[in-house]
Amino acid sequence: MSTDTLRVAASAPRHTEPKAPRPWFVLALAVAVLTYSMMQTMLLPVLPALKDALHTDGMGVSWILTAYLLSGAVAAPVLGSFGDRFGHRRMLLVSMGVFVVGSIIAGIAPNLTLVLIGRVLQGASTASFPLALAIVSTYLSGDERRSATGWLSGTVGLGAGIALVIGGIIAGIAPWQWLFWVGAVFGVLSMVLVAAAVPARRATGQARVDYAGITLLAVLLVGVLLVVSQASSWGITSPGIVAAAVIALLAAVALIAVERRVSAPLLDLPVLGRPTIAIGNALGVLLGFVPYLFYVGMPILLQTPEPVGAGMGTQATGWVMLPGTLVAFVGGRFASVLMRWMRSAWVSALAMVLIAVGALGIAAWPHDLIANIVFYAVMGLGAGIGMTVVADLIARGSEPHELGGLLGVNGVLRTIGSSFGAPVAMLILAAAAGVTGFVVLFLVAALASIVGAVLSLCLRTGAR
If you placed Cys at 336, which of 13, 147, 202, 321 could pair as Cys (CB 3.0 to 4.6 Å)? Predict the structure, then answer.
């Protein structure tokens, strides 16, 4: 072999296999997901304090929750799609970095405007769940992927439930700003762990961004969520609600037209029409809607004075609901075991039936504290199983370059379902006085869950 040949061979680029993640990389991802899920509910116990401290009214306080919801609804599909194109690890670090910045801004904010800016930035963390699931599906398959998906899905419910307790404790001993500083610490910790445990990997998608699709999707989601979240306070026929509904409708029509023409759409409509993806997304809506009826209804029931409720305080309510939260985490882990024994359709149907049983139990014995604890835990078990099954359905029905975006869309639909849950729950409780309102509320939850069970049975083995 000549010297020139050796020189050329030495200078040629070397193609090495991507590094494997650390054995504990799922734990690192779980911390990021936990951070996002905790900030969904941690502020609930301090809303009265925020109302006084920020010199605002009930509508202003509601925007502290709505801003996070709106931002997250846009961030999940957009950053998930960016992850497919530019790398899931990179976008996960970006989303958590933006979250940390938002937490710091909200923690030092002297007024409502800066708090809302911070909450909008915090909403970027909503993308952590689809991005984490996409990373898991990149490195794991089969039972290992299902097990890891169970960990992450269970963590969503675990964080939301634990945050109610943590928020109540902090609200009793420290200023409200501490809640945002706790979020910032968790955000930084998640970034350090992800950077250390998950190696960089070349993205499989096209490096082309559908800016028109992103803009139209943002307008559509903001319009829909404004209608859902503010209709009760603004009035269903108010100019603001009517304008938001019209704008959302026009954005939806334009989005469909645009996504059919661009070469790399943010929302690939034929892909979303695959049976497994379509049913998985429909179940995602229900898994956002039904548990949120519980999240809104249960605290009100427990805190309503006797003889209707138990007359509990905020912290006691959090502790009563904590077992259901822990069981939801267990349900996420248990789902991977169930999917080894039976078809995903049956596991999904079982999850929805468990949620229905939980709702029917509380509807039957609304005055019984023990029954409330037990049946709320049954609901939590079903919700934990259901979230894991849905994430696995989306993973099985997608290609690697589609996964982050599709999981993001599913997350948005779950968020929209949750958005409908709060106003529907309040509407029912306002329309029916006393214990009747709670009975009707949980019967509606049971009916929606049964619809989900029937829908689950429409899944076909191996269908896309």
Answer: 147
